[in-house]
Amino acid sequence: MADKPSSGEILGIPYNFERPSLGRLLSSYWQPSKGMLVEKPFGIGYTLNLANWRSWIVLAVAGGLYYQQTQSAGGASSSDDDADASDEPVEVIVDDD
Which residues of 30-68 are buried (b: 16+ CB within 10 A; e: fewer)? Predict the structure, then answer.
């Protein structure tokens, strides 16, 4: 049986299952001559190129959204009692007059 290739493309999406070295890991995340997305050093798909300023904006927005979610989740515990009360059945009276 023939050996399967450990790197290549499937439907235009790159993959690489070769064991990454430390140098290859570091160089794949910092490529000043490339765009915002670069091929992952291990696995399937793309990753952010930290040498591109747009990647830092994406990370800042994602961090801000995560921070906002954790802050709103902490405040939701006080309103859980109100939500539990509204989950109880409600009696509805219909007058047919």
Answer: eeeeeebebbbbeeeeeeebbbbeebeeeeeeeeeeeee
d(CA 48, CA 61): 14
Query: Are the beta carbons of 16 and 6 closer than 8 angstroms?
Result: yes
User: What is the model's pTM?
Assistant: 0.62
Q: Nearest 5°: CA angle at 61, between 44 and 12?
A: 25
63 contacts 82 by C-beta, under 8 angstroms: no
State the Cα–Cα distance between residues 82 and 71, nearest whole angstrom: 19
* Structure tokens, 42: 């291990």
Q: What is the pLDDT of residues 37-73, one digit of tens each?
A: 999 999 999 999 999 999 999 999 999 999 999 998 8
Separation of alpha carbons 20 and 40, rounded Å: 10
As a whole number of angstroms, the distance between CA 30 and CA 48 comes to 9
Q: What are the φ/ψ torsions at residue 39 (nearest 5 degrees)?
A: -65, 145
